[in-house]
Design a protein that fits this description.
Two copies of one chain form a homodimer. By secondary structure, chain A is mostly helical. The first copy, chain A, has five helices and three strands; from the N terminus they run H-H-E-H-H-E-E-H. Chain A binds a DNA duplex through helix 3 and helix 4. Chains A, B: InterPro entries: ArsR-like_HTH, HTH_HxlR, WH-like_DNA-bd_sf, WH_DNA-bd_sf.
DNA sequence: CGGTATCCAAGTCGATACTG
DNA sequence: CAGTATCGACTTGGATACCG
């Protein structure tokens, strides 16, 4: 359905054909850690290591990959400081902000689901 | 993070550890076609073949797999008729109904995203 | 501090053919 | 009509080590 070429560093949405808007959105926020990353950033901008500390279990490689994906898809912005060593701040774009309430409701449903078991 | 056993027919949520409610929800609705399936069923109950007709490009095997997953996770119900040949009706559970507005907003965001490109 | 490079395992989907 | 069975391919995530 999506006969696309992806590279080593995740899939660039622009090269992926998504006839369906639901499929498109799910592809953008559907990475294993993207939901948590976005819900963290929806509270405030964060530096790389701060995000990492908040997500125990994620490796550097994977965190970087997911951040790159989100950046490519226009959901977050990346900003380096001039310090040495440099720090990198991540924060939501306007597009990303629009996702926040959706993530919230997803989280709420998940919580309800869990207490239902 | 989720050290689980999955079988040939998809993953049973009950055996998967999801510390995070977002991750849990994404895992339940994150299959490639689950969003579309759920948004179809949110309009009305449908027979297997009707669903299949509405989703060109999905194979029987994959449709069945995704339906099984959704059933296992308590999102949809499966009901056979007594006809010959039998027909199978699928419809949302209460839990599934609660997902409908979320899917709607996901679809809306996806549409806004697409016109933004 | 914030990454890359390699290599590997698991998950997920698809094509195709066949069945009660 | 509504599935199963087999097999193969691609995608995604993870372990580990190293770098400017």
């Amino acid at each position: 359905m999506s006969g696309f070429k992806s590279d080593q560093y995740g899939t660039c949405t622009l090269t992926v054909k998504h006839a369906c808007p639901i499929e498109l959105t799910m592809h953008i926020i559907g990475g294993k850690w993207k939901g948590i990353i976005l819900s963290l950033l929806s509270q405030s901008p964060m530096y790389y290591n701060a995000i990492r500390r908040e997500i125990p279990g994620i490796t550097q490689r994977i965190l970087t990959l997911q951040l790159r994906d989100l950046e490519k898809d226009g959901i977050i912005k990346r900003e380096e400081t001039n310090d040495t060593p440099k720090k990198v701040l991540y924060y939501l774009t306007a597009l990303g902000e629009d996702l926040a309430p959706i993530l919230k409701s997803i989280e709420k449903w998940g919580n309800a689901y869990m207490s239902n078991q």
